Amino acid sequence: MEPLYMLIVSDDIEMGQEALKLSEEAFAVNLVAKKEAIVEIDKRTPDILLVADNQAVSGAETIQTIASDYNIPYIIFLGLEEDFNGLRDVIRAGADEYYLYPQELDSLRHKLPALLTTIQSQEESASTIQAFKRGKGKVFSFFSGKGGSGTTLLSLSFAQTLKLESTARVLFIDLNMQYGGAETFFGLESNRSLADLLPVVDELNETHIQHVLEYEKRSKLDMLLSPCDAEFAEEVTERFISKLIRTARRSYDFVILDLPHGMNVSTYTAMEESDKIYYVLTPDTPSIRTFQRVENLFDQLSIKREERLEFFLNKVSRDNELNKSDLQSLLTYPIALEVRLDVKGVQSHVNVSEPMHKSQEEKKLPGAAKDIRKWVRAFLK
């Protein structure tokens, strides 16, 4: 299970650094300035929010701004003033507890273990019934530097299976702006696409996204399709992609991104916003060489891969040039999934624009779909 996460928001260097010392091995902790708080929370909603401010009024404003848009399990205020009115404003804004700095730091330190246990117990209970918290959505990017690796098919199948096997809200976004492609796998035809969201980027919210969605009729998977428009692709900015993904993250439990093979502003921004990057690799020398070039580019762009990048091996068979042990000796990052080569089973569905996995209880699945379903079920546990 992912460790619990405490975010400290403070513009006061001394208070922020002292709050960081509250960290324990049981949870992850991060310190950001007020102006960076929303960006950080969009990436990952904390289990505990600690706002450290030497002014109760401004602290209350910070808490109110965050609490109005995000469902955070526990909010703590750390302040200097022993002021009844200030305490009242902070509690009204959404704080669960108020501690004075520095005299009550020890009390807060002793409170945290019990608080962490309570939050963890609540999250484990929610996981048992496969219920997911709004505002804590995970973003997974599927990418490959080599065409023909099966990135679109795997990302679509992953999203479809995730939707069928859980109660989660799942959104699939096709970021192949120029040519699209995802719609052909499910036989979708639509005049609605990502392009319809560009004019409303400044006020973009869940309602705007809902108005341009398409749906896979069997699983009810939500899909944002590509406009298949080279001119629109030129107009897309880093801000648009970032705002789209962050808005989607707040409304969905999982956001699955199908990225183009080339590195552009959309691809780079999507990777920066992602919790995981699944690199689709086929077990052959050209794919390995391409990934080595991609990795060099990642270094140049300072794209973080540790604990984020994992491989999906596609088209795996006994006749492959490289086996799993060969690949493990060549690759630095873990192999999350192996999908067998199943030309007949996959092609029979692709040719008629049907998903490989149509229902939760379906038994006659192509081999590739069985591999994905097995992995998704393990992932959801």
TrEMBL record:
Residues 138-301 form the AAA domain. One of its GO terms (cellular component) is cytoplasmic side of plasma membrane. Pfam families: AAA_31. One of its GO terms (molecular function) is ATP hydrolysis activity. It comes from the Bacteria. GO terms for biological process: negative regulation of cell division. PANTHER family: SEPTUM SITE-DETERMINING PROTEIN MIND HOMOLOG, CHLOROPLASTIC-RELATED, SLR0110 PROTEIN. This is AAA family ATPase. It comes from Paenalkalicoccus suaedae.
